Each structure stands twice: as C-alpha cells, then as structure tokens.
Amino acid sequence: MAGATRTPTNLTQGGKTDAGIGASTLRPDGTLKVTGEFAYSSDMWHEDMLWGFTLRSTVAHAEIVSIDTSEALAQSGVYAVLTYDDLPTDVKNYGLEIQDTPVLAHGKVRHHGEPVALVAADHPETARRAAAKIKIEYKELPVITDEASALAEDAILVHEGRDDHHSGHVPHPNIVHRQPIIRGNADEAAKKADVIVSGEYVFGMQDQAFLGPESGLAVPGEDGGVDLYVATQWLHSDLKQIAPVLGLPEEKVRMTLSGVGGAFGGREDISMQIHASLLALRTGKPVKIVYNRFESFFGHVHRHPAKLWYEHGATKDGKLTHLKCRIVLDGGAYASASPAVVGNASSLSVGPYVVDDVEIEAIALYSNNPPCGAMRGFGAVQACFAYEAQMDKLAKKLGMDPVEFRQLNAMEQGTIMPTGQPVDSPAPVAELLRRIKAMPLPPEQQWLAAGEGADVRALPGGLSNTTHGEGVVRGIGYAVGIKNVGFSEGFDDYSTARVRMEVVGGEAVATVHTAMAEVGQGGVTVHAQIARTELGVEQVTIHPADTQVGSAGSTSASRQTYMTGGAVKNTCENVREKVLDIGRRKFGTYHPAWATAELLLEGGKVVTDAGEVLADLADVLEGEAVDLELEFRHRPTEAFDLKTGQGFGHVQYSFAAHRAVVEVDTELGLVKVIELAVAQDVGKALNPLSVVGQIQGGTTQGLGVAVMEEIIVDPKTAKVRNPSFTDYLIPTILDTPTIPVDVLELADEHAPYGLRGIGEAPTLSSTPAVLAAIRNATGLELNKTPVRPEHLTGT
After folding, report:
1. Which domain covers residue 172, as residue numbers?
2. How far from chain centre, in Å, is Cα 196?
3. pTM for the full predicted model
4. Is 227 part of any domain?
5. In Å, what is the CA distance from 215 to each residue of 54, 330, 435?
6. Which of 632, 639, 653 has its CA nearest to residue 557?
7. Dist CA 73 CA 142 (whole Å)
8. Would 314 be classed as within a structural domain?
9. Which residues contact 656 (CB under 8 A, 6 or more apart)?
10. Residue 48 and residue 96 share a domain
11. What is the pLDDT of residues 153-188, one digit of tens each?
C-alpha cells in the first residue's frame, strides 16, 4: 500500500518450545496495545486521503420523496456525494444470509439511522458539514415496533414481495424465520405434574459496546480494484457482499484486517466497508471513514430484544415433566443473523436439563426498530434468562434448594436434546453447580468491620455516598447455561491455514497465515502455541490476516480456537510430515530410527519418541522450505426440521454456571454485585490465562445487561433515545465485582486437543444469576432486564 504510514504488520514472537499448548504465554500484540503502538483500524492513514461520511435517516419509517445534493456538492473541499442512483451495478443490497439491506436507501427508509447518502471531502468536518446540506424530503409512515403491530391483519409489510428461502414457511411476511421444536407430548406430560409454573419475561436490547468504532481505509488500485483495510469479524463474508455491489471480481477486492477494538458480534455485518470503497473508486483517492460513538450505535446491529413465555411442570419429588415456551425476538428492519439466532434460541430453550416432552416455538420479527443480529451468546442468552428464572420458581414452589433442584434435572453425557440430538461429549452440569456452591462466600457487611475507614465503593451507590449500610440486604443467586459452539444447522463450517517452515538466520522458523479476525480473543497467541507444539520451533510469525489466503470463517460462535486453531494444527501436522520426509531423504541412511521409530519435532530438532536426537531442524531444512495451505472442517451438522425441529443441529455444546452475590439498597433501589463466581468446562485450556480472561469478560457483559445496559427505543416513533455512552451505561471497573473462576477440563474427543469453545457460555448464566440474587434479596419477581431502581422501589 504505497504511501501508507500505518498498516497491519507481522506479529513475531519467540518463545521456548515448551510455550506451546497448555502454557499461559503472553500475547504477541499485548505490549503494542498497552504502549499505544498497535495500529487500530481508526489509526490507518494514507497520503492524500479523503474522509468519508454517511448521512443517515432522521426518521424510522418513511418514503423518500426527494434528495437534493446540490449544496453539498458545491461546498469547497467536497470530492463526491453519492446516493442510491450512483451505485455502479444492479446489485444494490447485501446481507449475511438474506440480501435485504440496501447499500443506500431507495424509495423508503425502514429504521432510524439508515444510510441515505455518502460524502467524501478533504477533511472530516468538511464532509460532515456537506452532509448536513443534503436536503431530504420524507413522507413518514406508521411504524411497526412490536409483535402486535407486526402481525396484525392489516399490518404494513416491512418488506413487500419477499422471495427469500424463509418466506415460504413463515405464517406472516413480517416474520423473518420460525422454528418450532416438538418432542413427545407436552400436554399429556403436564397431567403428570404436581406443580406447574409459568412466566412472561422481557429481555432488553443490548449493544456490543466495543470501544473501537467502525472504521477503515479504502485505497483504489491501479488495476481498477480496491485495497480495503478494515476491522471486521469475517473477511471473506465481507468480500462476498462487497464485490458484487462494486461490480468487481473478488480477486480485485483485496481485504486486510486492521486492528480491531472489540467486536462481540457487532462486526459480523457490513458497516462502512462498501461505502468507503464506493467513494474511493468514484474519487480515485484513498478514503477513510471513522464513525463517532453516536454513528456507531446506528452503524451495527444489536442483541435481539425478546419476549418469552415459559411453562414448566414438575413432580413433587422435583423431576421436570414438560416444557412449553414461545420466544419472540425483534429482528428490526433487516434480517442480519436473525434466522440463525432463532435456531439457537429454540434448540437451546430447554437449557442444560432433561425434559422429554416439549412444545417450543421461536420467531424473529421484522419491525422498524434498529436491526438486530449477532451478539455474544446469540439467542441462547435470552432463553437462559427465562428458563433459569423458571427453575427458581419451581424450586421455591417445591420447597427445594435451587441448586439441588437443578442438579436433579441436569443433563449429562448421553442426554437426548429436544431436537433429538444426543449429547456425545462430557456435560458436567451437576458438577459445575456443585463447584460454585462449594466456593467460599465473601464476608457479609464488609463495611461494618472497616468502621470509619469503610470504602463506600463497596456499597450500593458507590462514590455517590448514598448509604453507609442502612437498608442494605444481601442476596445470593445461581444459574447455569448451555451454548452451542460453531456454525450449526448444516452450514459448511470450515477454516483455512497456511503454514510455512524454513530456515532464517540459521534457525528453523514457522509462519502461520490465516484470515482469522483477531478481535481481542487471543487467537494469534494460540496459533503460535499450536505451531510450537506441532513443529518444535521457538520463532513463530503470525502473518496479517487477509483474503490472500482461504477463509477462516467468522470470529464468532466461540469457534475460532476450535476451527482455525484446528486448521493450524492440521496444517502443521502435514508440514511436519513433509519435514520428516525431507529428513529421511537427507539423513535416512545414517540411522535406522529414521525408518523405524515414531519421530517428533521438539526443541528445534528431530527426535525419536524415546528422546534420541537425530538431526537439527536447521540442517534438515537447509536450502528447502515446506509451505502448505489446507482446510479443516468439523463433523457435519444438519438443518432442523421446519415442523418438528428435529435434527443433529450443533457440533458441540459448552456449559458454565454462576453464583452471584449482591447487596441491594432496598430504599433507593441500588444494586452492588459483590461477587460473580463461575465454573466452566473448557475441555482443554490451551492458554489458561486467556481462558480466565475470556470467562471473566463474558461474565461482565452478562452483568451489564442484568443491571444497566439497554438501548431504549421510543415505542411511538421507533427512534433510539440513548445512542451514547452517556446514556447507554456499561460496567466500569468500579461496577465489576470479584470474579473467581474454576476451570474444569473434560476433553471432547471430537475436537482438536479436546477443547471447547469458551467465549460465549459465561455470558449466558451470569445475567440470570444476578437477577436471582436480587430476587433473593428483595423477594420481588423481576422478570425484565435490566433491573432498574424503580423496579425495586416501585416508584
């Protein structure tokens, strides 16, 4: 990229060859990040670049009567203004599964903040001022904001003339996708129940709230193509959506991952990628786009808000008899990942429990609310909130301990899921619950022991100094959840890795090249660890992720260590065999072990399984190199039946359990989470330090949606009321409690090294554990997230 001053670079890390899998090796990008030297996507720079800006709709649902760009074009410093009419091809929509999202609005806008026009100028403020001069006349239309308005007999259709592959089986065009799951006979099973409990639950719209805003740099190429440097979660998915809109073959859209400042699902969809590329190709100059926080709230999808109705029955000795539930997810104006979220919500709606007779329905709606899609937990979060509240209700009605009740009904290896799929790897649900219950509790009323030196930050209200302990009540709550790992329902889930082994400076070194998006999860660390383990080298270089290598799939679904880690392992194993073949050719006549022994690469040498050194790797590879690119796939899954929901839909399951300890100021409705203990089975901890970090991070996001996080949408106008970190609150270090972590390692024989995907499971059960603790403290039912002060005080 000629003229660039900040670009992605190789990450090279030396380490002992025993710093392979199982070691807590340091991140190769860690020092760069904490010293401010790491180049995030917003740091990209190019000589003579322009700045792009996206003008968005100020209303949620309206016809576009006219657009006048003349004043914007006339402003000094403006190089281009684009609207729908300027798009270069007949492909004007994009989407992950259903291509229903316009690049720029045409004829109609369907949600607040929808992109309508683009501006490129020589300064970001010039671009913003020019965009403000674009005159758009709207004719506002009624808004659809809930299930009642979406499914009414006379409901306005958010998308008229649908012809996508889901449209044929949904009962209403405003339903994106519907997935029922029927197993056994729930009505008959209910007759055996001694107690039946039901409840309606509401889960708020959560934002991914990543700190690095959407941003990137598009550079026009001499061949008529474009080089795009962007923060994303899936380079090749972006590529397949971008190239048709630009009218370019995929090989002319060269994508490189820039530094990603967090993702959590919010970067799976396209944001500014197509817009920057269009402006760069129109102007012939590099174009950079960086959203501010306000724009970011409109620039990516959010977690689906949900309304859930559940009914459970149980016998007097505590065994579950049946489950009926209905889950309604609001997908907003465009489909995004809604179909897959519906599949997850329905198939995991029973939770980690044995229930033979179920009647389940999950749907996602089209509405004029903000588009919703992928976020950490992906449909399983909303379901876990509801079924765990139900478990507490049942335990209370039966007079049973809530942990013992869960253990009595816990699934285990061999349990049949409601989809008919057997759980064919360890499912230590009861053991995880036992472990968190056995953890020591934090001392009560810590402020009393501290006397006058008490730290008010340990009390509800914190530094606002609203209480010194009066009216403060402690509560304890438990929850456990189940999450799938990897892409499901028959998706061809694969990942690619290229590995090169050669001699540099007299030492054998390895280079690992994948298209995996490193979004903070530590994949680059694990890839180096795998290469050290399999190839016996110290120096490993991680090549920048780009589309010059095969797809790595998305950094989502807790899949990357399993899938791209598996691809790196698989490719390294094949490289190792090639290296050994070279050794046999060069040195096989000198020692019979070359032909008879099991050979390993360790410590930069070829050794036998008995530890005898046969050769230095540097000598074996002198004058030669081994370079392979291979794909890795997990075992196949299949789509759920559209009528019964039966099918082998998921490749793996992961489990986590939480115990929350809270203190509640019952007079003011303020909550302080004192501790969130967690136990999780990770299969195999490839990097124990990173594992704990992922578990604590997921736990904190679950805490956020329990007590503070929610995007507020006006039910009358469908406009977002709080698109800023001033009004949309996320946990800070003062809100985050102690998070003790107990890691269990029970290998899954189907997975590389026996590992399990870990990133999402702790996000599920932390939320209902906190709610359960608040209920325990207050005696209130609390069926909505987040819990606000007025919910506790009744004011």
Report:
1. 147-207+302-373
2. 35
3. 0.96
4. yes
5. 12, 27, 43
6. 653
7. 33
8. yes
9. 432, 480, 481, 483, 678, 679, 680, 681, 695, 698, 761, 762, 764, 765
10. yes
11. 999 999 999 999 999 999 999 999 999 999 999 999
